[in-house]
Amino acid sequence: MSSSEFDLAYDELLARWPESTEERDVATPYGPTRVHVYGPADGTPLVLLPGGSATGLAWFANAAALGESYRVHAVDLLGDAGRTVRRGTPLRSADDLMAWLDALLDGLGLARTHLCGHSYGAWAAVRYALHAPQRVDRLALVDPTQVFAGFRPGYLMRALPTLIRPSEDRARAFLAWETGGTHLDETWLRLYALATTLPDRKLIAGGRPSAADLHMPVLVLLAEHSRAHRVGKVAERARRTLSQGEVALLPGATHHSLPFTAPKELNDRLMDFLARDREDWGIAAR
Length: 286
Description:
- By secondary structure, this protein is of the alpha/beta class.
- It has helices spanning 3-14, 63-66, 94-108, 120-131, 153-164, 168-179, 186-195, 231-241, 263-275, and strands at residues 22-26, 33-38, 44-49, 70-75, 113-118, 136-142, 218-223, 245-250, 284-285.
């Protein structure tokens, strides 16, 4: 696969974003970071971190609705596919990932923000909320992995061929298995499959963060049919662990079909969570 094929697929999905979306390359010591920005300039900031291989464009079905009330910043992750470039300080550890996010928020002029992540992006978001709690107002986790429970062994076994010998066909077969017949947007699917074949990706892994040390409102949205982990176990542990946690199920969703499957329900739940007055916010688990 040539990088030009990936770039063409990237631009095709970018065209699905609202017309007034701004493309920003924010300078950091680790290289320039691509951020897709949409919404009123004076809107409350909301930073979105995607899952692995998905790029910040994965929020294409959510941006218009979220951008009515919030200034959306959807990020291409450092070390992953997209138009964020590794250059300068080497990316070696989770501490580097946190330092990069510090620099990114500084470059965006965000002293404090709402933070939302999907999958690997949710893991990074939890790490960052623990690293810099003064900068995170509310935290939303969309089918988070490696936070409340590990991956299911069967999921890892299915993912292994794509990791060892990546190809577009293997990525598509893996997604077809995990999503179980759920309709996937073909433009996003092609970009994701091509992303897995890029040779210079370097996702930083790490242990499970201590979610019990999160002292802010946290929303956990789980995919009803996720094969990445045991949804019931994740829900039970999230409810037990979080001091200010709300857990909800997204009916019909699978891990990799988020966040663009049934976006209205995801958007509505997220905006309700973000808009709620702090004094009215309590522990809710449903």
